[in-house]
Design brief:
This protein has 481 residues and is an alpha/beta fold. The protein is built from 19 helices and 13 strands.
Length: 481
């Protein structure tokens, strides 16, 4: 495997030319180390010597050699120039010509491919011990009963920590001391005999998706495991054994194992199994690519996106740095769709309606604007809080309600237009709103409110007011504040 990485926004021909020139010399086994022309570092030459010696030693056995080339950059692998593709093919052909019976391939890794590799779940193979099982009609899926202690061992690593990577595909994180979780904990603490009241009688059980499952005796070997339903039960079982001390417990938990490599099938299973329990419907979007993209983007500025409800709270993140999907929607309504009135009234239920959800979380929107819009909204909020003695927003709820309108007007002030574009929003991401300009903005808005005889309480969600505001801005009203 040979990799070349460039911190550039496109794939260029020059790095491939350099690669082609080097490999024809380095892979020429007739040349000794001292006869190489180009100046190579000692580590590379040591690796070349090792390869040459090994290949020659194994030549009598006719080894099958495969050489893979990877060119990584921030470019788009789907938009390669013809000359770049041609040089990559030349590298492959030159490599095949240097060795008999050699396989070779050249792959371009753009920003999307690199991100997908970074998010790829670790390959895991774990064994789940069971006491009873029923094999489904597919002869590869299982319904089993596993003792509580065996299931605890299954989800716990060598250091006694919960294997949280098994729970990544859940639509929400641990909900804490909810009535359901308290009931689960209460059932675990009673330690009743299995013939009196077994644990699985009282619990819906666990749903696991795996890419492969093999049964041998009373053990299931599972590959690439994700617990897609039953996180609350898993967390509560883990907490029970950690707080009460590990002990053998013959009571059982019901585990359903579904074997599939199909992402669409997996998503259908996640949605279907979570519909059967009281999960906020908005949470069912949590595993979508755009939600992960937003999470990664906001993390760069130390914002923690709550795409999986309660995840960051359970990790101990400061509450003022946690961003909800509603906050993201509010920012996009105000600064991308230019509807601050909708940004002021948006509630969680908007994610339940496909039309409103897809309008906000639209993959065609430049992903960078999500981070910029959130930063501006939170920056304006911070300036409003700092000026509460001057502004009429004594209650924190009012600050939250009015921030989309104030943020929209602030961007208009900074850009000089009510028709600003996404690039201008992105350009303001790291500009800090200042208290005095926030006060001037409110003075302007309040004067317009009084002129129109509008009530302060619902001003932030009044479409007619926002339309008139944009009309005044387009006529240059902000130039005087």
């Amino acid at each position: 495997m040979i990799v070349t990485c460039k911190h550039e926004d496109s794939f260029r021909q020059v790095p491939i030319n350099n690669l082609l020139a080097s490999l024809t010399e380095l892979f020429d086994l007739s040349k000794s180390r001292s006869h190489l022309i180009a100046p190579y570092n000692d580590d590379l030459l040591d690796q070349r010597d090792l390869f040459c010696d090994t290949y020659k030693e194994l030549a009598i056995r006719q080894p099958k050699l495969s050489v893979s080339f990877y060119y990584a950059s921030r470019g788009d692998g789907a938009l390669l120039a013809d000359n770049v593709s041609a040089r990559a093919n030349a590298v492959v052909e030159a490599t095949r010509g240097l060795f008999s019976d050699c396989g070779s391939a050249f792959e371009f890794l753009g920003a999307s491919e690199i991100l997908a590799l970074a998010r790829r779940q670790r390959s895991t193979t774990l064994k789940l011990t069971f006491i009873e099982n029923v094999v489904s009609r597919a002869k590869s899926n299982y319904i089993v009963l596993s003792t509580l202690s065996d299931y605890f061992r299954f989800v716990t690593d060598e250091e006694g920590k919960l294997r949280r990577y098994l729970l990544e595909s859940n639509v929400r994180d641990y909900m804490g001391t909810t009535p359901v979780n308290l009931d689960i904990a209460g059932s675990l603490g009673q330690r009743s005999r299995i013939d009196e009241c077994d644990f699985w009688w009282l619990n819906n059980g666990i749903t696991i998706i795996a890419t492969a499952a093999n049964s041998a005796g009373k053990e299931l070997s599972l590959e690439n495991i994700q617990i897609v339903n039953g996180l609350q039960t898993t967390e509560t079982i883990f907490a029970h054994f950690k707080s009460d001390g590990f002990h053998e417990d013959e009571r059982a938990v019901l585990v359903k194992i579904i074997v599939t490599k199909d992402k669409e099938v997996r998503d259908r299973i996640i949605k279907a199994t979570n519909y059967q329990t009281p999960v906020e419907l908005a949470s069912l979007h949590a595993t979508e690519k755009i939600q992960r993209d937003i999470e990664d983007l906001l993390l760069k500025d130390n914002w923690f996106y709550d795409r999986r409800k309660n995840f960051h709270r359970n990790q101990g993140r400061p509450s003022h740095r946690i961003i909800s999907p509603v906050t993201v929607a509010s920012a996009i309504y105000a600064l991308v769709l230019k509807r601050p009135d909708l940004g002021g009234r948006v509630k969680t239920k908007f994610m339940r309606v496909e039309a409103s959800y897809s309008k906000i979380f639209n993959p065609t929107i430049d992903i960078r604007v999500f981070g910029a819009a959130v930063s501006i909204l939170k920056g304006v909020e911070g300036a409003m809080l700092a000026e509460r003695a001057t502004l009429p927003f004594r209650h924190g709820r009012l600050v939250s309600d009015f921030r989309p309108l104030m943020a929209f007007t602030w961007v208009c002030l900074r850009t000089g237009s009510g028709d600003f574009n996404n690039s201008e929003v992105i350009g303001l991401q790291h500009v800090t709103p200042e208290g005095p300009e926030i006060v001037r903005i409110w003075t302007f808005l309040d004067a317009l409110r009084q002129e129109k005889s509008m009530n302060l309480k619902r001003l932030y969600r009044n479409q007619a007011f926002c339309a008139e505001l944009k009309n005044r801005i387009d006529k240059g009203a902000l130039a005087h504040i």
